[in-house]
Amino acid sequence: MSKKILIFDTTLRDGEQSPGASLTISEKVIIAEQLAKLGVDVIEAGFPVASRGDFEAVRQIAKNIGDPVVCGLARAVDTDIDCCWEAVKYAKKPRIHTFIATSDIHRDEKLRKSKEEVIRSAVNAVKRAKSYCEDVEFSPEDAGRTSVDYMCDVVRAVIAAGATTVNIPDTVGYTEPEEFGGRIRTLFEKVPEARNVVVSVHCHNDLGNAVANSLAAVKHGAEQVECCVNGIGERAGNASLEEIVMNLRTRSDYFDAETGINTRELFKTSRLVSNLTGLGISRNKAVVGQNAFAHEAGIHQHGVLKSKATYEIMRAEDVGWSGDNIVIGKHSGKHAVIALLEAQGYILSSEQINRVTEKVKELADKNKSVEQDDVLAIAMDTLGQLSEQEQRIRLLGFSVTTGSGMTPTASVRLQIDGEEKRGAGLGDGPIDALSKAIWALIDPSVQLLEYNLKAITGGTDALADVSIKLKDMNGRIFSGRSVNEDVIKAGATAIINGLNRALNAREPRKEGGK
Length: 514
Ligand code: KIV
Ligand code: ZN
Hints:
This protein has helices spanning 25-38, 52-64, 78-88, 104-111, 115-132, 148-161, 177-190, 210-219, 241-250, 252-255, 266-277, 298-306, 334-343, 350-367, 372-383, 430-439, 487-504, and strands at residues 3-4, 6-9, 42-46, 69-75, 94-101, 136-141, 165-170, 198-203, 224-227, 257-258, 393-401, 409-416, 419-426, 447-455, 464-471, 477-484.
């Protein structure tokens, strides 16, 4: 019988550490619900001590998610572990994941602790976590650059202290597949008691090896893989969930292993995460990229028409990909919109679908033809809208004057935390003037880093899609997005969307936060 590989999803913790990927609490709950539908075994929902928002997100996911284990991250210190338990304790299956760095460079430069001190902290952390919760995971951070003997000493000690899962992270994505697989093999040889716990791996993608390293570890006995949807995460990201899962499934002959993932939910999950984080997916991304099942070369097309198996090793429908090009016209109703959104992996509430349908009809009335990309842009805009409570800044009105031989000027009326404010600005162009007018009313420590404008479909009446990035005083990056027929309104609302996200995540992350 093939062995079961547990899928530990850390999209909401390590994945959310991607610059610009910060999610609101309700967006995290929506993703967690989809991860449960996808069939992941463990959801790492966040790092509760990092901020009030992280704590609340983990608590709400713990309260709302049924089947998977809900896990929170904690450094190997009492306050983190206590806080983590307060957040995960509502889950049907709670887990505390505690970690401390073990490589020489991290011990000497970051922690300034001896090897013995690190082992003592690790053991104390596992014992404290164990006093709350049966299910405790421990990670020796930067294990990929830790001497194998010392890593084995740490693992031996935490297993004796009660850890039920031991995770071996390649924190900086430094190792090569054979080397990392060999490390797991040696671990089982030197610490036979590791066979009584779950040995997990967590690989970063700095050299592009995250998936290959994780799979090499599976070949040598690892039973849990930590990964993120679309491979998002710190720096170059984490191992991509969909690639791990489809490798294990497509090459089950080689791995003799299987996962509990419902692969037909992969495409939908991928699009949901991309839409909510604002992190796009490259067209040629394995498994879920737009081109993953497209054939360009004539010789390939000829082969595929005769038999798909000539050039396709996976079936598009097995990953939930639908290439159907559903046409939306003036008379298309809600069902056509739903069919299109479902086919493209968009998950919206019925209220959101009504809003999208209404906007599509409005646009069709004005614009004659509405293309598929217009509908998807409207859906993305609707998904990115914040709840009433989260919209602390609202655009009440604006005016912009521009022309040849004159300086563009703008005035804006905002409601900020219930209070109406008016601002004015001059700029190099109309958008610049409008953004100066907005900035005259808000915290100047938040900076606009990027402003991207795209026309969705051709023509002068095309929808304008604006996406922006902001940086707050703690260096955290926030995205904002808006779609509108009026290019200036799209710009103003995208900036305000980003500002609200920054405002809702106000408290600083704690020092040393992962
Ligand atoms: O990359 C890493 O080492 C981590 C640990 C907390 C598991 O994210
Ligand atoms: Zn990591």
